[in-house]
Structure formats: structure tokens, C-alpha cells
Automatic annotation (TrEMBL):
This is Uncharacterized protein. Residues 47-68 are annotated as: Disordered.
Length: 68
């Protein structure tokens, strides 16, 4: 009689590549140099999401001086 079961690899054989460098994650980097070009007009007249977006963009590496 033949077996109906297939010998499948276990989860660790599928998910573990053996590459330990996957765990060497950089979690801290220096922040951007400069300051956001926030003006009275931006803070009063534009949606708060604009200022928030500028901080996010600068945090992702955009030059703060070019975000106005």
C-alpha cells in the first residue's frame, strides 16, 4: 500500500534562510541637518497636515530647506 502523505518541509525549513545578517537592523540614524522653513503664514493659514508632512519628509531624508 502506498502512503497518501507527502513529506513536506517544516516551517523552520521554509522561513529560516540561515542568513544572520537579517537581524542586523539599523534602528537609529542621525537626523537631518537644518530646520524647517515654518513661517507664521504656514502655521496660521495652511492645514496642520502640511507642517506634519514637512516633518515626516525631513525625517525621511529630504533637505528641510527645500520643503516649503
Amino acid at each position: 500500500m502506498t502512503s497518501r502523505f507527502i513529506n513536506l518541509p517544516g516551517p523552520s525549513e521554509i522561513l529560516d534562510s540561515g542568513d544572520r545578517s537579517l537581524y542586523e537592523v539599523v534602528t537609529h540614524r542621525p537626523g537631518p541637518v537644518g530646520e524647517l522653513p515654518l513661517t507664521d503664514r504656514i502655521l496660521r493659514d495652511r492645514p496642520s497636515g502640511d507642517a506634519f508632512g514637512m516633518t515626516q519628509d525631513a525625517g525621511m531624508g529630504w533637505r528641510p530647506s527645500g520643503l516649503a
